[in-house]
Amino acid sequence: MEHTPVVACGEAEESLVGGTVVREMAKIRASTSRLGVLLREALEGNSTVGAVFEELEGSISRAFSLLDRKQQGGDGPPSSEHRSSEIPTKKRKVNPACDRRGGCRRRIQSSSLRIVKSKTLDDGQTWRKYGQKEIQSAKHPRSYFRCTHKYDQGCMAHRQAQLSEDDPTDFVITYIGEHTCRDPTVVPPQMVSASIFQDTCLISFGAGGHGVRQEASVPASFASQKQESDEDAASNLTTASSSSGYFLLPATENPVVTTPDVTSGFHTATDLDMDFMADTYLEDVFGFDDDEFFR
DNA sequence: ATGATTTGACCGAC
DNA sequence: GTCGGTCAAATCAT
Q: Where is the WRKY domain (predicted)?
């Protein structure tokens, strides 16, 4: 009675923050890797660049594993996907000690949040739907998707999709987090540069888009969105001008877009939380300034 | 058989 | 207490 709460609370908090840092580090590592590929292509034959990047990647990997070890502690908690594997009961059993269902919700804490209007849910990425919910203030249900590679590659990208209130033929899609997965069929270089060049805008395929793969019809409920198989994704590559459903344009041309403030029904971003935490941790834990780091 | 989707339950934030 | 995000068993599709 007299022991656990304070300690448990502190550990939970530390674990939460650590998890955030781990996710950020994963993104850093993935971005660095991609940047390395791009730089090597651009500066082909320059062995110095390659050497520097290998060193950089090595440092990040070491930091990542250290952090990961620290977060796991000695207990070696089960991974989320095996959370309940030991209890094959008929009805779900909740393990109050470790069940994080719904934890850290409401406030979307992500360093990347984009809201896009689109005629189709198909954006060239592979998503897995994990839920659908009627939303109080909205006419249409909201569907929840996570990246197919969440578990195999730890990709933390999520999205929420909802039919637009204004135009029910449009989907309002909220992208949360960046893809850190490396599915060669779905991660175009353009998407990589999206987070680098902030002057660019992410736009969806508009109604009048050309060379756009369009759904034959928009279902009344998009719950039955078909998941793209790799084969489909590959065929998308051939039919669409980009494997992604989006083009990157200079900020001066942004016909259909989508900034967080146009979506009154959606969450407002709280990006600063995580950015701040990541900054703080990078400085405190690793002793370097990420601004310098990414320069 | 395998993987994706559906859907009710669960749980933390508000 | 309500609401929204997530989980996971059941079901469906391939």
A: 116-184
